[in-house]
Amino acid sequence: MIRRREPHATYFPEAVEIELARYPSVVALKSELFAAGFVELQELGVECHAELTDIEPYRTKIHSSLQLMSNAAFDVGIKRLEHDLRSGPIPYTWRYLLLWGTKRSGD
Questions:
Q1: What is the pLDDT along the chain (107 residues), one digit of tens a residue?
Q2: Cβ distance 75 to 52 under 8 Å?
Q3: Domain spans, the chain
C-alpha cells in the first residue's frame, strides 16, 4: 500500500523505503495481536482520494518521511511536483490497512 500512495510514491520514491522501514509488516502485527490475546483478526484496506492543488504542505515537509530523505532527492521531487501542478490538480490517493480483532475472554 505504501508503494502505491500518490503522489508521495511517484514524486518522492526515496520516501517509500523510509516508510517501509518504519512500519511493521502485517504478519508481524497479526503475530503481536495474537500474542496479546486477540482472535478473529480482520483487515480492511482503505483508500482516501482527493486532488492535490497546493504544494505548500509538501514544501514544508508535512509528511515525516520527507524530513528523513536527502535534500537532493527532496528537491527533485518538489521540482517535478511544481512542474506537474502547472497542468492542473494531481490525483491524491492515500492507502491504509485497518487491522482489528476481538480480545479473548479472560485475557
A1: 888 889 999 999 999 999 999 989 999 999 999 999 999 999 999 999 999 999 999 999 988 999 999 999 999 999 999 999 999 999 999 888 999 899 887 76
A2: no
A3: 2-101
